[in-house]
Amino acid sequence: MDVITKIENKNQSPIALTIGSFDGIHFGHQKIINDLIAYSKKNGLRSALMTFMPSPKSYFTGKNNQIMGLREKVNYLNELNLDVFILCKFNKFFEKITAEHFLDQMLIDKLNVKSIFVGKDFKFGHQRRGSIDLLNKYHENKDIELVTFEPITKENERVSSSLIREKIINNDFKSVEKLLCRNLSVSGNVFHGDKMGRTIDFPTINIKYKSSLLNGVYEVTTLHKGKQYIGLANIGLKPTVKGINRQFEAYLLDFKENVYGEYMKFDILSKVRDTMKFKSLEDLQLQIKTDIKNLLELQKKK
């Protein structure tokens, strides 16, 4: 899969394009992407997905509650056999660009877009003035093929990233798994933390995690060198040691590997408890022992 981060020169290969945040790449997203890929192969086009970092919503609100990190998104799209991933930095330029300018100068002239795949409620351009009506005009006047999708439902609920965030906040991870068609996960490169966990006999694997979506202690699992491990992850802040940066810290049972610098992915299975502030590290140690005991009891019931 090719990754494009700058749209500068004329793209020689015609493409079929879908556009959106695609946060989580849920069941509904997968339908659009799979149809896009099948259509592209049939019509001699390259399948492409355009997204923005930060998402327009995060840009305007200043909030980061993303479901999926960028690297995880790229990896997953590559697994789906997408041909081209286009990542645009959302900034003042994209904030001000008109829908017509976006279509004419970016999609048609530079990216050589021949087909567009979007949901029927798709909005784009300055003040979200671009809509399906405008895309239909381009279909009629400039021979741009337009494929639209009705909202997709699963178990009588409209599948959306917002719904998944709601399920995550409510700790309904079984529903999250159904909507994503896989477990929710957190991934990244392991970095050297403050090594405080070692002092209380619970060394942790540390990954940067900036999203505000997950907060507390969670049951996690990961695959390393072909072996499955279970454990607990504290996600968010660390009030006991006055941590000011959000991060992901996982303690894995029976894990002794040195993984600094490695890229690791952890599946989030359930929430164990909320974040707590303890009077001492000894109190924290006792709570972790209780959490592990509860985790082992949970595993016996599965």
Question: What coarse outline follows from CA principal-axis ratios?
Answer: elongated
List segments where confidence is low: pLDDT < 50 over at least 5 consecutive residues.
none
What is the succession of H and E elements? EEHEHHEHHEHEEEHHEHEEEEEH
Q: Tell me the Rg in angstroms.
A: 22 Å
Structure, described:
The chain has about 300 residues and is an alpha/beta fold. It folds into 2 domains: about 1-160, 3-Layer(aba) Sandwich (Rossmann fold), CATH 3.40.50.620; about 185-300, Elongation Factor Tu (Ef-tu), domain 3 (Beta Barrel). It is built from 10 helices and 14 strands. A hairpin with a 2-residue loop joins β11 (about 215-225) and β12 (about 225-235). The longest helix has 21 residues, at about 280-300. The protein starts with a strand and ends with a helix.
At a glance:
The protein is α/β, with parallel strands linked by helices and 302 residues long. It has helices at 27-43, 56-61, 70-79, 92-96, 99-108, 132-142, 161-169, 173-180, 196-199, 281-301; strands spanning 2-4, 15-19, 46-53, 84-89, 113-119, 145-149, 153-154, 157-158, 184-189, 205-208, 216-224, 227-236, 247-252, 263-273.
